[in-house]
Amino acid sequence: MKLLKKISTVLAAALIFTQSVFSAERVSDQRQKFISYALKFQGTKYVFGGETPDGFDCSGFVDYVSNHGLGIQLPRQASAIYKKVKKISKEEREPGDLMFFKNNMNSEKITHVGI
Fold it and tell me: Rounded distance, CA 10 to CA 62, Å?
């Protein structure tokens, strides 16, 4: 449970950082719309398997925001989303990009996604 709280805290901090550091001039309209829509759910509780504003898990949150905020349907699991999206270099990252994580460094399986 501590890990889930840390993930929620990190995600919330990342969203706050994105909102405060990047102005609309530096972020495309579509990215700004995506980020702004995601911020509406700040403080929503973590629920394993959650995919609604009543409670989200990581991929449920990303899928919901993509679908309802931009009309883009994504797969439901972080590993499936990872397989579908274009990979970019560290230097190409912009606010609103998805970031993927592995909970086990000895595994190649993606287990977490965030904005």
Answer: 15
Taking the C-alpha atoms of residue 63 and residue 71, their distance in angstroms, rounded to an integer, is: 10
The single residue listed with the structure tokens 């995919």 is: 51
> What confidence tens digit (pLDDT) does each residue in 18-77 have?
444 444 455 688 999 999 999 999 999 999 999 999 999 999 999 999 999 999 999 999
3-state DSSP of 15-67: HHHHHHHCCHHHCCHHHHHHHHHHHCCCCCCECCCCEECCEECHHHHHHHHHH
Question: CA-based angle 61:39:79, to the nearest 5?
Answer: 25
Please enumerate in sequence order all residues whose Cβ is within 8 A of that of 110, keeping only pairs 6 or more positions apart, or say none. Answer: 78, 79, 82, 100, 101, 102
d(CA 44, CA 55): 6
Q: Which residue carries 């398997």 as its tokens?
A: 49
